[in-house]
Design brief:
Strand content: under 5%
Distance between the termini: 53 Å
CATH class: Mainly Alpha
Number of strands: 0
Number of helices: 14
Bound molecules: fe (ii) ion
Order of helices and strands: HHHHHHHHHHHHHH
Largest sheet: none
Radius of gyration: 19 Å
Shape: globular
Number of domains: 1
Low-confidence stretches: 1-6, 10-31
Oligomer: single chain
Length: 331
């Protein structure tokens, strides 16, 4: 099945040269996307509503076009995999991915509800922001559907490989709904979570030999990059509205990038125990002889790039993120 790469519209690609090049190598940046008629992500939503006269119907149409152009079939993708030809260590990558993807549905369900609540909170006070929140909540239906592809393909495969099955208790535990937080913090966290997932899956695709499984990981990594681009667009629109402070985006980035931060996932010395919800990156299990897709540098570079697109502020190291965060907080 043929899918197309997610595009971001003209004006969205004002990144520093290195990061820009990285996006281009992922097939993402396309300055002519809008003119060419190809589906694209509306990256400057605030401008679209305030200067271009676009409405929620217009924005939703673009979301639908992009979603439809990128649809793929889990059943066709799994049918192309030679199950017997997959090595033991590659099977474990699938097992980890399946468990991690179980947490995406509660994330998307929460976003739907919170974005609609925020939409109504801003109605009459800042109607552009209210529309941006509604665009975000509307998009969450596509996000949820696409994550369903990831979850079911990996968990079905893990069963076909004869690996330890996800119990109903674990399934239900991983479905716990995330607690609400400031919307900019939430969208920044989701952007970073998609970056970590995309880099992990991209690295898995590189080491996997079986062509069908390699293609599946590549497809899922491309989906995660598309999700990251949407979250960055919504987060940027919140900052552009003037109602949300850039310091919140930096606070979340620092949480990931600090010494022993979340970007190190389950390899941190101390992983917090929570009763409220499951962070998927805390629950990856790396066993003897198993490939572990770290690529911390790559994740950091993509996080710096996301911060630039969300806030307009350039940073290029974890220390600079911390310094800028302290400065914005007023310390
Ligand atoms: Fe996913
Ligand atoms: Fe995703």
């Amino acid at each position: 099945m043929k899918t197309v790469n997610p595009l971001i519209e003209a004006g969205a690609s004002q990144q520093p040269p290195v990061a820009r090049q990285q996006l281009e190598t992922s097939g993402l940046a396309d300055e002519g996307a809008r003119d060419s008629g190809k589906p694209f992500i509306v990256a400057d939503l605030y401008k679209a509503f305030t200067q271009e006269g676009r409405t929620l119907v217009d924005i939703t149409w673009e979301q639908q076009r992009l979603h439809e152009s990128r649809r793929w079939s889990v059943m066709e993708m799994l049918a192309a995999i030679d199950v017997e030809g997959v090595t033991q260590s590659d099977r474990l990558l699938v097992w980890n991915a399946g468990r991690a993807e179980l947490t995406t549905k509660p994330g998307a369900d929460r976003l739907t509800r919170q974005a609609d609540a925020e939409c109504r909170r801003w109605q009459g006070k800042n109607d552009v922001l209210s529309a941006i929140m509604q665009a975000c909540g509307t998009w969450s239906r596509y996000w949820n559907e696409e994550e369903a592809h990831h979850e079911t393909s990996f968990n079905r495969l893990a069963n076909l490989f004869g690996l330890e099955r996800v119990s109903d208790d674990t399934f239900i535990e991983f479905r716990k709904i995330f607690p609400d937080d400031d919307m900019l913090r939430t969208l920044t966290l989701l952007s970073i979570s998609e970056i970590v997932a995309a880099v992990n899956y991209g690295n898995c695709a590189r080491v996997i030999q079986e062509p069908g499984l390699k293609a599946l990981f590549k497809q899922v990594a491309a989906d995660e990059i598309q999700h990251m681009n949407y979250f960055v667009a919504f987060a940027k629109a919140l900052v552009d509205s003037g109602e949300y402070a850039a310091k919140e985006a930096f606070a979340v980035a620092h949480f990931f990038l600090r010494d022993g931060g979340e970007v190190h996932g389950s390899k941190r010395q101390r992983v917090e125990q929570r009763d409220t919800h499951v962070n998927w990156w805390d629950h990856l299990e790396y066993r003897e002889g198993m490939y572990s897709p770290d690529a911390i540098d790559k994740k950091e570079t993509l996080i710096f790039n996301a911060l630039k697109r969300i806030t307009g502020i350039t940073v290029s190291s974890a220390e600079e993120v911390e310094d800028k965060w302290m400065e914005l907080v007023g310390c």
